[in-house]
Amino acid sequence: MIIDGDDSFIGRNVLPLFNAVYQRDNAAMAYSNFLTIHNNDRTELGFCHDINKETFDQNTFRNSWDLPGTHLLTFYSDVFKRIKISDLTNPNGTFYDYAYDRAILTPLLEMAYPRISVIK
Predict the structure, then answer these.
(1) How far is the C-alpha of 106 from the C-alpha of 36, rounded, in Å?
(2) From CA 65, how far away is CA 7, in angstroms rounded?
(3) In this structure, what DSSP letter does residue 50 have?
(4) ∠ CA 42-48-19, rounded to 5°
């Protein structure tokens, strides 16, 4: 599971909910949406969405800046352990210089597809 230090769960049933989804769907990976709570107590729903099958079929996932999932991101460790250094580096061999979760999300999605569940 990846949860950033500035994030928190809403309620006590988040982990049981994810567990139920993993059991129901035989998922290798699951992700959900998030809420941004602003200083004035206004909330804003995140941008989580289902994965576009055509992106996988055309093998253009790495070329897309469309980020389907964010927090909360969960996955089985065997999927995570299959990430290679080359999955995390540019063609010139340097590491991607953006958020670590975006860098690992792409290979995780590629390896877990189609056993991915989205909790909305």
Answers:
(1) 23
(2) 23
(3) -
(4) 105
